[in-house]
Amino acid sequence: MKSCEWCGEPEALSGTNTVYWELPDGTRAIELTNTPAMICSSCGMAYQEDSTIKDIEDQLFLINTKKLPESLTYQQLMETERILKRNYFDFS
Questions:
Q1: What confidence tens digit (pLDDT) does each residue in 25-45 have?
Q2: What is the pTM of this model?
Q3: Where is coiled-coil annotated (predicted)?
Q4: Residue 39 forms beta bridges with which residues?
């Protein structure tokens, strides 16, 4: 169990949820189901950890997003074939 990033209570548990993500080119958003999430039983907030957000953002930069369906699972997104070796826009 981890502390909730929103309320600070030690009530956040690992789970999954559905999120909507805008593609890097801004043309549309996609639905990602079964996305890893932290869910707080105290305040009810469900959110993605920074590492999950980075994984999604990097993957979206590395694949051909024009071929993505409107809805897919997090796992399907992460298994999509990459056209680049790395995210050249990540300067961290």
A1: 999 999 999 999 999 999 999
A2: 0.87
A3: none
A4: 13, 46
